[in-house]
What we know:
The protein has helices at about 1-30, 30-40, 40-75, 110-125, 145-155, 160-170, 175-180, 180-190, 195-200, 205-220, 240-255, and strands spanning about 90, 100-105, 130-135, 230, 235. By secondary structure, the protein is of the alpha+beta class.
Amino acid sequence: xxxxxxxxxxxxxxxLIGCAAIVEKTIEQxxxxxxxxxxxxxxxxxxxxxxxxxxxxEEARKQEDDNERARLEDExxxxxxxxxxxxxxxxxxxxxxxxxxxxxxxxxxxxxxGYDNLKEVRKQYGDKVRVVFKHLPLEFHPMAMPAAKYFxxxxxxxxxxxxxxxxxIFSNQSALKEKKEQFLKDTAKKLGANMTKLMSxxxxxxxxxxxxxxxxxxxxxxxxxxxGFLINGVSLRGAYPPPYFQKIIDRQLGETK
Length: 257
């Protein structure tokens, strides 16, 4: 009897599969069948579509979260290794345990938000964190490259002045867009820069090579938009709020204590 039961079940499955294939073929040959059903039940159809879309979005979000967790764990074990020249401008304690390398664009509004977020991170961690500002000027921001050049030219005179210049630009992005290079000149002059030297250094090979090297490195690490961050080699892409930095930093400090 059990054998007959299994045979009957198998036969039923075959019949169902066969029926499903017939239904599918019929619909392919006569799509109006489906269209007529939708016309008769538009509300139900929209409910089904909406539920399916919601389900797909949730699944995609879950997959994205899983991928992000896996990436984070991999980079914790195998951090990226950015180049940091000895004469580079560093914001904060040069001997800090945590180095945040930022790839940024002076004209990017998201980078302005990233600037605000990093200020909070630096307040929270004090001497435990240092920031290395690197350049990724985007082509569609016409003042990004000039601002990067001015920053590096100012840095050749004083790292402290360069940090103040950096802060002034991000605190007044609207003025950069409105007044353009005049704003850069006025800001550098107000901070006490030697303008004759600055204008000479602006298009020097040293300045151009540093910016080009930063851009190549950003590309190597997969950063195509701004801002992008490496937190002791662990990447964070976008203007994420401080808790995202905190999650990575706290783990790293725990491992380095």
